Write the structure tokens for this entry.
Amino acid sequence: MADWTTLISVVGASFLASFVEVVEAFTIVLAVGIIRGWRSAILGTVAALGVLALIVVTMGPLLLQVPLRLLQAIVGILLLLFGLRWLRKAILRAIGAIPPHDEEAAFESEMRELAGAGARNAARFDWIAGVAAFKAVLLEGVEVVFIVVAVGAARGLLWEASLGALAAAVLVLLIGLMVHKPLSQVPENTLKFAVGVVLSAFGLFWTGEGFGIEWPGADAAILAFAAMFLFVAGGLVTWVRSRRLEPA
Amino acid sequence: MIASVLKEILGLFVDDEVLALAVLAVVAIVGALAFSGMSKGVCGLVLVIALPLVLIISVLRTLRRNARQS
């Protein structure tokens, strides 16, 4: 039985990371639904969810065949690449070196693209709209599947991690249904910053475990690593910002 | 469609190629040390020090590149 530190870390990481991805998919599906009709948007979304379920059902049993140490090392390395990439981007956005992700702008851009994609026939299935929704849900969904597998598999907490992702999807849908517009108020960069910190910490922990390193404090080391990445990333942002404020 | 999905999947892990290569290099070095019989404590320490360092270098490198371009 996993202890509470591990359980909360796994479910929390899965929830936060999935929340960001589902918000991005929701923005595109919403644009498709409003501009081209809800039938195509919903069918495209359901088809993508079907493909994702197929990926999970096919890949899931294969994961059980991989020796635990090897699985931890592979997942750890992938998480390091994934987490540090997110963290780097979040740091650069916090510093102002790259523009923040704007859900409102993404929504407007998708609306323009769909509006210019030719007239639709209400009686027929709108392929342009269906494919747009399918692609958005599939691409963001693949990220969610990876996150769930990566944070859950190495500790046998796949179901718990899936519940975290499902809770994120339900929450985004509920908020989306209520406000009926892109969720631009979500502090996406802050979330990505937090997720980057947590995934990098998991990556460091499991890469080490994969190489047979026994971390002091066992699973609690994940929290220490998260604190370290937060300190490094936060410190870097503060340092760069303060240097920019200094007179030349 | 399949090409864009594959590109997107690769993009999950690789954004800045130098960061990705540096992370893989650190992991390869630690793996080599661990399997050559080096103390696991030392291997862990190398991971803990090198990975944040790689992140810092990648961010500073991008900032320097942006400054040169502007």
Residues 40-69 of chain B form the longest helix (30 residues). The helical segments of chain B are 2-13, 17-35, 40-69.
